[in-house]
Amino acid sequence: MNSGQSRVKWLPAWALALVLLLFVVGSWEALIRSAALGPEFIDNRALWVSERHRLNGYGGDAIAVLGASRVQRAIHPETLARELGGPVVQLAVEGTSAIPLLEDLAVDPRFRGTVLFSVAPAFSFNRRLSKLDAGNQAEWVAYYRSQSRSRRFEYELRLATQDLFAFRSPDASVTRVLPDVLLRGKLPESNFKMTFADRSVSVDYSKFRTPETPQRMVDLYLENTEAYEADEFADLINYVSAIVTILNVKNCRVIFLRLPSGDIVRDLERRMFPNERFWGYMKRNINAEFIHFEDFPELSGYLSVDGSHVASEKSAAFTKVLAGVIQN
């Protein structure tokens, strides 16, 4: 028998194997989607870098959102883009300072848009920031600057599969799903946190194993936060002011935003970071626009049960109101 005949005989076997593979993968995909475990994105360096690259193509129309978890959960990018009339790129990183990215935007000649910088006291006024900084945004900025074209293509391919296939979701990993199926006879519930392609985040507080409460937020503050001394804060603000001056020269609009907090969280922030010494000092020494939620009553009433973040189900409504404040 020649090699050509041998290959012909193997064709049905390969075709059957392919059909079985597609059936298994398709069944797993349908199962994951039926349990609402995907599609979902992983909020990691790859997704952040992809968004940072996307920002470069928008020129003066771009609206870059900087900060930590408060602004990542509060801003609904689609709503903000519709209300302000420009593309919105969510570049906030949970548990981190955005100053390295502000510097990156200042020195990047391609960026000429608007910066919306969320000022969270635990990250903007905290001398223990190195202990609290979980995301280390400086590392992500450095990786963005050094990323090769081949690695960027690889990342974009991975992100495309996350968007297309639910089984690529972190909630749908075999190591997470199979134990629940084998031990409890049913699929696990989706995680409390879901990240979307635009890097907006939705949080379902009913799925937390330990309830997220204002007291827990206060405990985290007390454990990890210490206010800057006056001279240290002055040095920091001088540095930020110099960065903003560079952005001003490029005709960029810079807005510093203080998002809502409430209950005992806000009480503690008032005691640890008095407005006159911190927020007020920024306003006097940085040539930018400032929006503090206490100056705009319409920004109240959107908080989640933890007293520190806007509730996910209210983020679109909150964003629309905030857009009105920005426009006015």
User: How many E strands?
Assistant: 7
The helix/strand class is: alpha/beta
Largest sheet: 5 strands, parallel
Radius of gyration, in angstroms, nearest whole number = 23 Å
Helix and strand run? HHEHHEHEHHHHHEEHHEHHEH
CA-based shape: globular
Record the strand order, biggest sheet.
Answer: 2-1-3-6-7
- CATH architecture tag of the domain at 61-141 and 203-327: 3-Layer(aba) Sandwich
The assembly state of the depicted protein chains is single chain
Count of alpha/pi helices: 15
Instruction: Write the CATH homologous superfamily of the domain at 61-141 and 203-327.
Output: SGNH hydrolase
Distance between the terminal alpha carbons, to the nearest Å? 82 Å
CATH class of the domain at 61-141 and 203-327: Alpha Beta
In which range does the helix fraction lie?
Answer: 40-55%
Mean pLDDT: 86
CATH topology of the domain at 61-141 and 203-327: Rossmann fold
Low-confidence stretches: none
| Percentage beta strand | 5-15%
Considering the chains and any ligands shown, give keywords for the structure:
single chain; 328 residues; alpha/beta; Rossmann fold; two-stranded antiparallel ribbon; 7 strands; 9% strand; globular
Protein described:
The protein has 328 residues and is of the alpha/beta class. It has a domain at 61-141 and 203-327: Rossmann fold. The chain contains 15 helices and seven strands. It has helices spanning 3-34, 45-55, 69-74, 77-84, 99-107, 121-124, 129-132, 137-146, 149-164, 174-184, 214-224, 230-249, 263-272, 279-285, 315-327, and strands spanning 63-66, 88-90, 114-118, 193-195, 201-203, 253-258, 289-292. A five-stranded parallel β-sheet has the order 2-1-3-6-7, with helices on both faces. Helix 2 (45-55) packs across helix 8 (137-146), helix 5 (99-107) packs parallel to helix 12 (230-249) and helix 11 packs parallel to helix 13 (263-272). The N and C termini lie far apart (82 Å). The mean pLDDT is 86.
